[in-house]
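[DERIVE STRUCTURE TOKENS]
===
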Amino acid sequence: MHIVFLGVGEACDERLANTSILVTYQDHDRGQGNILLDCGFTVPPRFFMYFSDPDALDAVWISHFHGDHFMGVPLLLLRLWEMKRSKPLYFVGQEGLQGKVETAMDLSYPKFREKMTYPLEYQIVRSEKTIDLVGLRWSFAATDHWQYNLALCLQGNEQSVYYSGDGGPRPSCEDLAYKCSLIVQEGFLIDQSILGHGDLNRCLELTAKAQADQLAIVHVQRDVRRQEELTIRNRLAQVNDFNAFLPEPGDELEI
């Protein structure tokens, strides 16, 4: 799997694009596949820096319906239409996903859906369930967040990636992340828990309990990241049992 950190910021960060991950993988039957994990306000311009083929994207995962994880969808779909996409595009997420996508499209670009030249296929999922889609196995667990949010594990032939969306990890998240090649976990603060969000301590604890290979901390509160970035990086550098890091937008990783 090849991972691109399109964005690593929280909702109101003026410097860093909203957290979004691009996963590229090889499937024996389908060839190369591409999945976009979350699509907030500022994500589409970052996404189109990497793709000139409108049919390259196979699926979009939406962890929850807060704007910084979801409201870039209308622009994504409009640009793919302008680029003459023809292949169906899968949307994967919780109950209500289709209605949210259609409402967002109608508010952003009225009557655009009437012009769509490619179909959208919706796959509705639930916590602690598993599906097989576009050559990967998808599994899910609910996190501790203000709005219902699902963490995702994508399992390929040999590699796997866990993506938290927003929220602190619950025990079921530890099971979901077990032995993953990479954990991408929201860590809003450093050492102070806040209701509905993760923090650095729990990110490290999750990765250790899951016996995962690597940890990427994303969605850090903007002032905390600006003022305490050196502290965070030094803390991560002291970890011995796994590789822990604070990615920048555009960073790429092979797992």
